[in-house]
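Q: What would this chain look like folded?
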Amino acid sequence: MTNSPRLRRTRDGCRARASPSPPAPPNPSPPSPKRCASPPPGQLGEPLTGHTTSVWAVTAFRASDGRALLATAGLSRTVHVWDTVTRQSVRVLDGHTDSIWAVTAFTAPDGRPLLATAGHDRTVRIWDPETGDQLGEPLTGHTQPVLSVTAFTAPDGRPLLATVGHDRTVRIWDPQTA
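A: My prediction, written as structure tokens:
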């Protein structure tokens, strides 16, 4: 019985044949998206690329037409809306003045999908991901960066948002009246 070469996982998640050569020296520059010969086990297709800086937040939601979409955000101060079938960024939402720490999806009373983002600029912003419009003025009140946002339903059925920040507060918002 002969030994077949073993597969190893590279630092970026790609599969490669084990080799006796020493590893390459560490690269001080940030890694760029790399295409693998085949994606790692469990990963569906190639990574979605389009952000120009670090990505810190992701949420999934359904468009009005039923398509599965993702919204991602991070250091670039923008939100990318991705079509999960075409794997393309279909819209970029721009409005924060500093990095975005969190994004969540919720449903408006009229059934439209909406997004809420929380940023280092101390604001929470509400977006219509299908038009790219920011809805209303930013929600302000945090005195330090807003780190997380989540959506929940009030007892009367209204969508509400909860945020937390570096100012050590938890705030509850009604996006319809803000």
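The domain at 50-173 is CATH 2.130.10.10 (Methylamine Dehydrogenase; Chain H).
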